[in-house]
Amino acid sequence: GKDDRDGGLAVDEAKPKLKRPPLFKVVLLNDDFTPMDFVVEVLKSFFGMGDEQATQVMLHVHTRGVGVCGVFTRDVAETKVRLVNTYSREHQHPLLCAMEEA
Ligand code: TYC
């Protein structure tokens, strides 16, 4: 009860449900073939980055192998991954986008 005689352990104690949703990192993977300019355009178009940040992230992926494009809820992350991979395939580039729980 709210007088806390039960220490908040009563089975009828309703906890306010304010849980934050799980978040997912959307990442780009490096490859040997996708042009750097194409990766920069993807980061600008699908992730709202400016020229400078997009170039930094692209170079990070190029040198480290993987890099974070952004952190989103599950549905948004899934949609970003699908849109980027479809766009890359349409342009005959092997660029891979993926998601992982943050
Ligand atoms: N490694 C590519 C090249 O040298 C560039 C590249 C960067 C490709 C990032 C994919 O996610 C990537 N042209």
UniProtKB/TrEMBL annotation:
GO terms for biological process: protein catabolic process; proteolysis. InterPro entries: ClpS (IPR022935), ClpS_core (IPR003769), Ribosomal_bL12_C/ClpS-like (IPR014719). One of its GO terms (molecular function) is peptidase activity. It holds the Pfam family ClpS. The keyword Plastid does not apply. The keyword Hydrolase applies. Residues 19-97 form the Adaptor protein ClpS core domain. Binds to the N-terminal domain of the chaperone ClpA. Belongs to the ClpS family. This is ATP-dependent Clp protease adapter protein ClpS.
